[in-house]
Each structure stands twice: as structure tokens, then as C-alpha cells.
Design a protein that fits this description.
about 325 residues; 4-stranded antiparallel beta sheet; two-stranded antiparallel sheet; alpha+beta; elongated
Length: about 325
Amino acid sequence: MESVELPVSQVDVLPPANNAGRLDPSRLDCPRPILPRSDMDEKEADVMAEPPRDTDSISIASTASFPDFMGRKLLTIDDERTTTAYEAWELKLIEGRDMRQSWKTLFGIKIATRWVHRNDGCVLVNSIPSFEQGELTDMHEDAIRRYRNSHARQETAYEQDLANRAYNLPYDVSDALQHLIEDKTAATNANPYRKREWRVVVLQPGEFQMTELLPEYKRKSFFSRKRQPPAARTWFVVLHGQEVKSTKEDGGWKAYSRHSNPWWRLDNRETREERDQNKAMRKRIDGRHYARHRARGPQPANPILPTRRPPMPTANGLPQVPS
């Protein structure tokens, strides 16, 4: 007996959870967004055999043409009603090391030391694709809810507190996060009909953990109050992409650069008209000069230049040929 495979219907919204109070969107005063689906979801029976293609790419540098090196398919949104998307990222700060180079001793007693800064630090930016869109949406809502519960009497909103924490990041981490947002904004605004923005909605500091428990950091010295910092600090970041504006009129928004001229068509028309008038005027002047020259006949010789004398005849009557 043959087994019949039923097509699995793709659901764009999350099903209601058991704890309805936790996912209640009324607390955030905004409707539940339609979540994007992944290409890894099961497709309909009629298109299951055909792989996805990037034939309708609007940009030659479209990321849909480059598969993930792990074999994962990129997150794809094919519904116009889905105007939001979430992405989880991890920023890892590896600071430059200070290495002890030498000691200064006096009578065999170490009194001073010399340190050398290696300057071998960096910031690693890694994506975390192990979260679904619904999980990231819940993280955003839970972060807002926890802040409101702990700061009920304060006027500072969650967005302002998030902005303060984001701008107080170390310089290298803040710079890497800024470049990440700029790259995502440039990649998602190649469409001349839609404008999208990316913002940080969740920012949680952490630490790179190699073991089950974190180490107990001791103080640098007996007189120091600060404890030894971790070797690698991390930040968990959730980015929220939102469509903020769209248009379907006059072929979408127009492009321009610092050297482009919006009035180039008007300038070409005016200069072309001026050139045509100049050519017509020169043609009329040349025509009048030609007609006047034909009416006068041949022009007399120049009185200033001497007239050419005919050659002197020789004895045989032929003109003399100059040697």
C-alpha cells in the first residue's frame, strides 16, 4: 500500500502558546507581526521538486546567490505583509595583551617591571542562526516586560536605557556593531520601492565560557579594588529589521550621488537649443557671404604685392626655364 504524503501548510504566524499571558501582544500596544518563514520549511507538493533559484535578483551582489558555507539556506521572506525580521548576533571582544618583558632589580630585589602591549586584540562578529523568529520576538517582548517590572517608578523607557547601554560599549565593539547595522541596511535597501531600517532591540553582556562554571576572578593586587577582567567578553545582540516606507509611484525612488545632476535633462535641452540657434546663425552668415562673393565676380589683385612678370623668351622662341 502506497503512503500518501499530505502537503504541510506553512503558517506565517506563531500558534498561541500555553501561557497566553506571556505572549499577550496587548501589553506592548502593537499587533503581532507576521513572522518570516525559512527556506528550510517544507514546501508545497507542486514545488517540492524544484529548488529555489535567484533569477529575480535585483542586485548583482545579492546574498541569495551565495549559499551558507555550512549548507544552511538563507532566511527568505516572500510575503509583502511581512515587514519585520529578527536576527541574533554575538560580538566577542578579545582585548590586546599586556606581557611582562623584564624586571628591574636592586640588590637582587625586584622593584619594578616593564610591560609591553601586544595590541593583538580584535572583535569577532558571529551570527547565531539557532533561534527562530518567534523566539527572537519573545526575547524582545520579555526584555521590555522585565524592564517595566523593575523600573515601574522611573520615567526612563526601555528604548532610552538600551540606547545608553549601546553607546557605552567599548569603542571597538561599538564600531563593529555600527558597521554591522550599516551592512544590513545597505543589503536590504537595494529595492527602489521599499525602505528598511535595522535597530538594536536586545543587548545583553556576557562572557566567553569554556567550562560549566565561570572562574573566580581575583584582584590584580592587594591595593586594587577592581577584579581581574575576563579574557574575552561577549555581547548578545538582537537586530530588528523593519520596513518604514514604501512606494509604487513613478518607478520608485530615484538615486543620486555627490556628483550627479538632477537637472541634466533640462541643461541638455537648453544647451542643445542654444547650439541649434548658433548653428543657424552661422549658416545664415555664411550664405550671405557666399552670395555677395558671387555677385562681385573675381576679386582684383592685391596692389601691395608685385605683379608676376611673364618669362623672357629665348633665342628659339621658347620661354626660359629656370634651372
